[in-house]
Specification:
The chain is an all-alpha fold. It is elongated. The protein contains 13 helices and no strands. Helices cover 78% and strands 0% of the residues. Helix 11 packs antiparallel against helix 12.
Amino acid sequence: MAHDRPRQTRQCFLCVNLRNLRFQWCVVIMDEREFVAARKESWDRLGGIVDRAGGTHGLRKLSKDELGELGPLYRRTASDLAYARAHSISPRLVFQINQLVARTYALLYQTDTRTWSGLLRFFTHDFPQTFRRRMAFFLTALGLTVAGFFVAYALVAHSRDNIDFFVPPGNPFRDSLDYWETGKTSRAIPDTHAALGASFYMTHNTQVSFVAFAGGILAGIPTAFLMWQNGQMLGAFAGVMTHSHQHGNFWPGIVPHGIVEITALLISGAAGLSLGWAILAPGAYRRKDALVIAARDVAKLIVGTICLFIFAGFVEAFVSHSLLPKPLKIGFGALSGVALYAYLFRAGRSGVALTMDDGR
């Protein structure tokens, strides 16, 4: 009899567990039914609006009331998706909600650049709105660049020999460093040479931009390193200028194009970090879906930065190294920087607000 008690205890324990399991399963089923019943009308309404805007005219087919509904419905459905995943709702329902969220996102952030009006809207609305939507990644890229600058500047300003850590002998930038150190950086440049220089600067900077955003595929680690390295390079140059007392010649040759160029590099870095974050922390989405959503924004950022690099290339070739007075060069750079950031922070804010959080 004494041996039967443990067996009976185990049987009772097993029965209790099975009953608890059945109870939990019933609760999940009931919760899912209540969840669907409460939210289905909202999902159907959002799906109907997305279907209506699914043609070539997109958002232009929607009425003002529908445009007003679209944002709140999208945010609510994205929250529903997060809830469904967190509470073990059936995979089929999660998939359906995920598809609806993805279709809505694609509708909100698409731009038809095949028409002149679509191209104009890209530059007046989509690019600056995307920049602001990815502001956290831009600030991260900025932080890495600024930190790299001050670390390199402090080390090189302390001892000029430390320049070898950042620009070792044989490095392609060593000749440029020696050139800046002479102070003879302003000269008359033939138009043909300036045009060739502009072409080189634009090509080189665009290549760096592609490297920065492509690094996002590797969780953004190469992108972060590139931002740090760019800051270090500028800081090391500035440290050498301190020793040679050439800041008065160095910055007038950098500022005219540098504010726009560095901003474009930082936006490229933000694009790469966005991809990396989508891989590391997809949030409410599946990793694949999060990557697709981030890639849409990244494509817009890269197109915008190419235009900025074109501008910076022309300025570097025709203004930065020209014989123009130094105050004029600094003033040009400052004005172009103010205009650029006014555009990035203010453009595209009018009209119905459609720059919603992507749910992550």
